[in-house]
Structures are given as C-alpha cells and as structure tokens.
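Reagents: none. Just compute today. DUF4400 domain-containing protein.
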Amino acid sequence: MKKPLWLVVWLLVIELVVILLLVPGDWTDKAIEKESRFVESNLGSGARYWIRRKADDWYHLTMIDSGFYEGMYFTLIPTEHERARSRGMQNMGSWWFQWVEGRMEALANVVYQFFTRSALFLLWAPYMLILLAPALYDGAMTWKIKRTNFDYASPVIHRYSIRLTTYLILGLGIAFFAPIALNPVIIPVVMMVCCVLIGLTMGNLQKRV
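Predicted 3D structure written out:
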C-alpha cells in the first residue's frame, strides 16, 4: 500500500509543478467559470452561490487575511521603490518578474479551485452519510450472519474493496487540483461507489468465533 500512496503523492507533485510552470494564468479562471456553470445547470443557482461564497471565505482566510499572498508577492517581485533605487537596472529582468507574477496568479487560482471543489464535496457530504449508514449496517449484518453459518467471507473482496476505496479517494484528491472543468456529478458518484465498497469490506471481514 505504501507504493501506490507514494505514486499518488508524486503524481500530485508533478501535477502541481506542471500547473505552476506551464498552465496559463487565465486557463484555470476559465475552468472555474465553466465548472460553476456545470454546478448551476445540475444543482441550481442556490448551490452555485453557496459554493462560491464558501470558497471565497476560505480563500480570503488562507491567502489574503493570512498575508500569504502579499508576502509571496513582495518576496519574489521588487516594489517600484526598490526598482527606482536600482539606477540603471530598473527594467532588468522585467520579463522574469512578469512571468513570476503569472505563476503566482496560477497558484492562487489552483488554490481557489481546490476550495470550490471542497465546498462542493461538503455540499454532497450529508447526502452521502445517508448512503453510508445503511451500507455499514448491511455490511455489519452480513458479517454477523456469516459468523453463524457456512457462508464464505472472501478475503479477496475485503482486500480489494479497501484498495479500490483508497484509490478512489486519492484519485478524487488529485482531481481536485486538475485545471479542467469537472462535472459536479463526479464527486457523488465516487462517494456512492466508496459507500458500496465500504459495505462490502464490512461484510467480508474474516470470521471470528
């Protein structure tokens, strides 16, 4: 299990590096707007407004109010006063600072997009609990029944249900950073499949007398 986890971590790192180095700053903006229209068409304008408000609150709390973005900006890009003090070198590296500013905007957009998808996940979470509760109950009852008869508790189903659940959750985490518009239906579908797999995991625990 350690190797797939490290693989996911490396994929996430590579994804973020590609976004920060190659993806244009306005690309993620367009993806956010397109995804927001998907949310409105599938869930309504109320859900779209709630997600936007929640993402705005989280973004301002972590990036603006904390001073992170401002500190990053003044650390990487010289102010007009600092440029004026560098006589004869005021315009040196201006293209580089423009590129850095664009990468900072790309980072800010990725963070904001992650918050919009986290808000969407939070919006779906109560409904998924309604599915998770009966899945856990059914799995527990199935396990108890198998303890009293000769039904087979499959270790293969148990093992691969856990693995597939883990892969789906990690894959969803990677998708949260993808600079493309995702259909909001993807999140509840993944969560529903995970609920079913968790039920299978519970129902195929090894028997203990």
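The first helix runs from residue 2 to 22.
Action item: order primers for follow-up constructs.
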